[in-house]
Amino acid sequence: MTRHIPNAAARRAYLRAAAFMLSAALLFSPAAGEIVPCATLRDAYFLGRAAEDARAGEVRFSLPAAVLNQPHRIHEDKGTPGEWDEHDAVWNMIYLFPSVYMMSYAVYPRDGEMRVDLYFYYRDGVRLLDASREGGPLSAPESAALEKAKAIAAGADPSLPPRERLLQLCGALCDAITFLDPRNAPEGWDVKSCITALTRGRANCQGYSDAFFLAASLAGFEVRYQNGWNRSGESHTWNRALIDGAWLDVDLTWMDSGGGNPEKYFLTDPSDPVPGHIPEESVWPLSPDQAGCAVKRDPLMVSGSR
């Protein structure tokens, strides 16, 4: 995953432009146009996750201005305190919504509080899964990727127990995809997408997780995306699958480069994670008492490849 937006002004200009593109998205709130009051960032997080689960295009909430302007981000790795404002607080929330590929926002100060509008644009695996269930126009590459995912899902033997069947599906995906760092990708190849992963056979961790989400969902498994960090503090993405009533980690990227032991990264318990798998929500301070993070990093300037 690569996250490089050079400065606050550039981020804000980018987000304002993106908001116009997403302004026609479906509104998520208890009632159309309603602003949900939140007392803490944790409240806003759970509201956003509910919107994400509902595949909403927009969620609106308010927060006390003091909550958004306190130092929620860790700067020790940079050696300087850095600057913090409400835009940093809201921008960093995107990493907590793993099925969202891009998030734009607008912040409106008013009477000691901030009104925040979030706009969600979902990952290609989510879009293609929805298209397979609900119909809708797809481009030729999108249709090809969906058909490839359907073929891989159909190839998983339904007579096998769920764990063995999911492992078989992972093996087929690993056979079909090879890791490619986005910095080395040919122009026009979005290796963060399941479309490139399934039609060109190349992906980074986001592309692997996107392809897994699509194929495993089509095969009838309940799966999610998971954003986080590796042991070097670089951003990383994998998946979680619901097996026998428990959510377990599946890292298809590392399964495909597991040094002869791919099952080391298959259905691992998040409460006892494989070294290098640190969930984003476990290190993103949602309240002042969580300021002592184990991983110190500036998420706006982290570039990770695996």
Brief summary of the model shown:
This protein has 306 residues and is an alpha/beta fold.
Strand portion? 15-25%
Spatial separation of the terminal alpha carbons? 8 Å
> SSE order, as H and E?
HEEHEHHEEHHHEHEHEEEHEEH
Low-confidence segments? 1-32, 71-84, 283-306
Quaternary organisation: single chain
The computed structural class is: alpha/beta
In the CATH scheme, what's the topology name of the largest domain? C8orf32 fold
Largest sheet: 5 strands, mixed
The CATH architecture of the largest domain can be named as Roll
- Could you tell me the radius of gyration in angstroms? 19 Å
Number of strands: 12
Q: In one word, what is the shape?
A: globular
Helix content: 25-40%
What count of domains describes the coordinates?
2
What is the average of the pLDDT values? 76
Q: What is the highest CATH level, the class of the largest domain?
A: Alpha Beta
Tally of alpha and pi helices: 11
What order do the helices and strands come in, and which of them pair?
Elements: H1 8-21, E1 27-28, E2 36-37, H2 41-53, E3 58-64, H3 65-68, H4 86-91, E4 100-110, E5 113-122, H5 124-134, H6 140-154, H7 162-176, E6 178-179, H8 194-199, E7 202-203, H9 205-218, E8 223-229, E9 235-243, E10 246-250, H10 252-255, E11 266-268, E12 278-279, H11 280-283
Parallel strand pairs: 1-3, 2-3, 6-7
Antiparallel strand pairs: 3-5, 4-5, 8-9, 8-12, 9-10, 10-11
Helix pairs in contact: 5-9, 6-9, 7-9
